[in-house]
Amino acid sequence: MKRLSRFLIVAVMAIGSLCLIPAQADVVLTRLGDLEGSYFSSIAEDVSDDGSVVVGSSIAHKVSFNSYYEAFRWENGTMEPLGDLDNGDFISSAAYGISPDGSVIVGEAEHTVETENVLAAYVRTGNGPMIQIGESPQLEPSGALSISPDGQCIGGFYRLTGEYLTRAVLWENGVPSYPELSIYGSDYNYGAVNAISNPYGLDDQRTVVGKIAGVDLIFFPAFWIKTGGTLTPTIIRYSDGEMCGISGDGQRIVGMAEHFSIFKAFYVDVDVSPTSPQWLDFPVDSVMNTAACARDISSDKSIIVGYASNINPEVAHEAVMWVWSLKEGDSEPKYHPIVLNQYADDNGVDRDGFFMLEARAITPDGEVIVGQGINSNQDLEAFHLRIAGSNGGGGTLTNPLGNDDVDEHGNTRSDSLGPINISHFPNVYSFGIDGYFWCAEETITDEGAWFYRYPPPEGD
Q1: Which of 119, 224, 330, 420 is deepest in the core (most CB within 10 A)?
Q2: DSSP letter at 433?
């Protein structure tokens, strides 16, 4: 715990964990390109904690109207193809999840075993080959969609021979378990596991999220609390939906579901109202609003990312971030939608005809968002958007209080201030002072901290 300046303590105590995204000089949009081939298309599915490694898939080849993708790993401007499983002939592959340090990738690979085309879940460590999860050869299709931050659990799906829908599966240290849920009197677990939290609490529980279907084959958002070998289920009674992402503490889940014939983005709090979705606002209030989806959430719950439809007539939907904040007219904090393309424009980014369509993942610190967009050639292309920098964007050092309690270095001299930890809240909005303030954690001392203000005052 470290002591901060009076300004910051007052602001944090007044607004709790509010976080507004300041206009910054270092907002950077990077288009990731695609793998070499005659067809251009790529999508980013996940990103390492520091934002430096991105995984996804890109079209490798086409046969008639069928597109066949290959998994990729992107780092330092280079997109590396990941190939396929060693056994059988290559057909297609995709990467869906990555470990925090970027060293472990999970996904699915379709290949030919004897005369059968088989979709198999895989894990890839470092520069090693894809290793099939489960028995090999495997004639029942499976895929890995997520990996827990500690790397101990992998979630995904499998499908029994002769069945059309997938079933949820959770591998822990390579051993599978099958989350089930009793719906309408019968046990069915059609569905998938989309995300898994780290252990938390005295019992080392995990939150496991995804979707599940009953006898009528309608999918519902669902999550399980895993305690030891027991998986306790909870279903959200809104159809045609799924849960997609989890906050760092495993307590806030985001997803989408149908609500009065409109697909809406939502969040639920596991420890407060687990079966009551809190619907997220559309960026534009219109009768044309037909769909929105929340895909991921930052560790501190301050930013949710996804997409919403019918914002711009030029594209079907656009990437959106919902930011936890208190605006004029709000009686309490809420998530406010911000369209990423407009945000980039407002920060001086030259998109050159590129539209961000879907935000698929966000780093735990809320600084990097990845997903899929469409370029000026109308090709689908993966993107990487940095919305905050490690140095606060080079703002102007300022004394926010302007009184004797703060010295020329921005440090407070007051002994009456209590300690407070803001490791998850580096961006704080001031009610009494115009602009945004950012405090680099490494500058925090027992006496105070340096502050940067956005936008810089005129003449500074």
Answers
A1: 224
A2: S
DSSP characters over 299-316 = TTSSEEEEEEESS-TTSS
CB atoms within 10 A of CB 301: 21
> Which residue matches tokens 């209590």?
418
282-334 confidence digits (pLDDT tens): 987 765 667 899 999 999 899 999 999 877 778 889 999 999 888 778 888 89
pLDDT at residue 265 is higher than 90? yes
Q: Can you tell me the distance from the alpha carbon of 59 to that of 70, in angstroms, rounded to the nearest whole number?
A: 6
In angstroms, how far is CA 30 from the centroid of its own chain? Answer: 17
**Residues 123/116/194/238 CA torsion (nearest 10 deg):** 180
Q: How far apart (Å, rounded) are the C-alpha atoms in residues 325 and 330? A: 9
3-class secondary structure, 403:
coil
- What gap in Å lies between CA 177 and CA 155, rounded to an integer? 10
- Tell which residue, 293, 246, 284, 237, has the closest CA to residue 265: 293
Do the beta carbons of residue 66 and residue 54 sit within 8 Å? no
Token output for 437: 């303030």
Q: Which amino acid is at 98?
A: I
Q: What is the pLDDT of residues 38-51, one digit of tens each?
A: 689 999 999 999 99
Beta bridge pairs of residue 78:
75
Q: Measure the CA–CA gap between 405 and 420, rounded to whole angstroms.
A: 18
Evaluated on CA atoms 407, 413, 417, 419, the torsion sign reads positive
**Structure-token pair, residue 58:** 């890109």
Nearest alpha-carbon partner for 417 in 459, 387, 449, 381: 449
Distance CA 311, CA 355 (A): 12
Rounded Cα gap, residues 294 and 306, in angstroms: 4
Instruction: Give this prediction's pTM.
Output: 0.79
CB 198 within 8 A of CB 208: no
Rounded CA gap, 223 and 196, in Å? Answer: 10
Determine the Cα–Cα distance for residues 60 and 83; give it in Å rounded to an integer: 10
Q: How far is CA 272 from CA 252, 275, 276, 408, in A?
A: 10, 9, 9, 45
- Of 168, 179, 172, 177, whose CA–CA distance to 143 is shortest? 168
Q: Are 51 and 384 in contact (CB under 8 A)?
A: yes
